[in-house]
Batch of 2 targets.
Target 1
Amino acid sequence: MGNVGILGVGSYVPEKTVTNFDMEKILDTSDEWIRTRTGIIERRFADDKQTTSDLAAIAAKRAIEDAGISPEDIGLIIVGTNSPDMRYPATACLVQDKIGAKNAAAFDLQAGCPGWIFATTVGAQFVKTGMYKYVLTIGAEVITRMMDKTDRYTYVLFGDGAGATVLGNVEEGGFKSFELYADGSLAEYLTLPAGGSRLPFSQEVLDKRLHYTKMNGREVFKFSVREIGRISKNVMDKAGLKPDDIRWFIPHQANIRIIDAGMKRLGIPKEKVVVTIDKYGNSSAASIPIALDEIYREGKLKKGDNVLMVSFGAGMTSGAFVVEWSK
Ligand SMILES: CC(C)(COP(=O)(O)OP(=O)(O)OC[C@H]1O[C@@H](n2cnc3c(N)ncnc32)[C@H](O)[C@@H]1OP(=O)(O)O)[C@@H](O)C(=O)NCCC(=O)NCCS
């Protein structure tokens, strides 16, 4: 059994750009507040007719093309998302149909913003065991529809998008270490309370706007800064690598202050850190594969580069891995 690596990558962000100045028109907020507190300048919003599976399917087709295989070759599709098209069926099944991956099994994986990190970690195990030759892992969100337009605290933070990767065996390089983590005792810090078995939809839910995301920003911030440092160090230790051995750090794009604080703790220079939050805001499970695709398409990613990707989010969860780029 060979090593497992990333054979193809692709992403998609919707056309519609919403700037902080646009936010000023609908909320009691300012460009200055959003920029200095979060690093966000603008974000993308899906078109009214676009769903998460639409975004995911575009990113997936690009990744499959990049891998040089056809959709029928895919054995398994895992979609990491917090904004599925519907409560069920799984968005992954809708993606399977849209891209014509008729031989693939498909399921969603709900792990907060690290959804794509979790999906990719799970997918890699299936390749490693030989159960599937090619696994498609996707982080896709129309997360802005889960946000309350009247809540300045959350609405300004998020954006939509999708990123996808094809996993398979590689001769050189590939994944060197993984780590996944959850602490459910902190679950209440970031929730979308209604629409599940705990609080089914009702008039009261709508009146209290419980069908939208609720967040304790300060607690999420503290958890995120702690986890970004802790779990990144763990995956470097497991891989026998030091920060100097890592060429690119791709952290989840939630807040530039979280990224800066986390990277400072690890002693990582800014030139090695990929930042897209200024353009896309927090696109939840899509943020890392979009950022990966961007540096890949810009030609910054070279064969042999060690890349560390790390994420944190609702659950609370965190996850990270190191992959040696093999393309
Ligand atoms: C949300 C977040 C940006 C808030 O930043 P903060 O520095 O913690 O801000 P505070 O919560 O202390 O609020 C400071 C003030 O700004 C106000 N404020 C909040 N949102 C605002 C906005 N969009 N525009 C203007 N003012 C705002 C608050 O009401 C508060 O005012 P007050 O002092 O008069 O009460 C920050 O906590 C954060 O990024 N947390 C992590 C969130 C996250 O990453 N979530 C996703 C995880 S995957």
Note: The chain has a mean pLDDT of 97.
Target 2
Amino acid sequence: MLAQLENQFHDLYLEYFHKAEAHRRWNVLNDVPWADITTTPNEEIARVVQTFMAVEMYLPDYTSKIMHLVRSSRGRAWFQANWGYEESKHSLVLELWITKSGARSVDQIRAFQDDILSREWNLHYETPLEMIIYTTFQEFATSVNYRGLRRVAMQQSADPALDKALTLLARDETGHFEFFKNGVKLFMDVDRDRVLEALNKVIHTFRMPAQTLIPDFGAHGKLLKELGIFDDRIFLRDVVRPVLKALGVQSEELREARHRLGAA
Ligand SMILES: [Fe+2]
Ligand SMILES: [Fe+2]
């Protein structure tokens, strides 16, 4: 059974990888219209971009810790390597926008990044099943965040460079979500109750990486809420609901499993 699951994960990875190579690769320098950048950015937008960049900067922790958890699974380990490459471009492109737009100087951004990297991200859950469920929600939520920021940024200043960068990032995050979501479905085919139990646990304890990593998350969370980019209500309506639908899980089934299995 386990060997079959791993073969399926490997097939899932190959499908993901070839699709990404054929349709989703982009270039940080060439695919963003940097020459058209608006050089008087809105400060609130700049603050949100800087915090999203900070979250993307925990790449060494995300890649090393998740890779260690799934190292014996070729499909999942190779995916993590490819995922790391794609995520590495996210902080780069956001950083370029911040400095090229004049929102922050290079020195300011270096000092900020030193402070960010002095902290460490830790796995939110211990098992591969719980972590793949967590990352399914987290990737979807991240794409919702980038789309929300893009919508607000376009209303404020219509910067073509930021518009394109956020479009590319949201598209990558959706690609990541697809892989993780399809992976959760593989686990469901093996043991649906176990997945329902873990789903209940993750939904009830979910926290975005920023909530555990950003020291002044209160102010950041307030700004995201004020700008209509992200809050608890948006999480339930625009993340939990569509992700459950994509997994083919009804909220009644989840509730019933919670009572039956005594999960969180
Ligand atoms: Fe990302
Ligand atoms: Fe991602």
Note: Residues 125 and 161 are 36 Å apart (CA to CA).
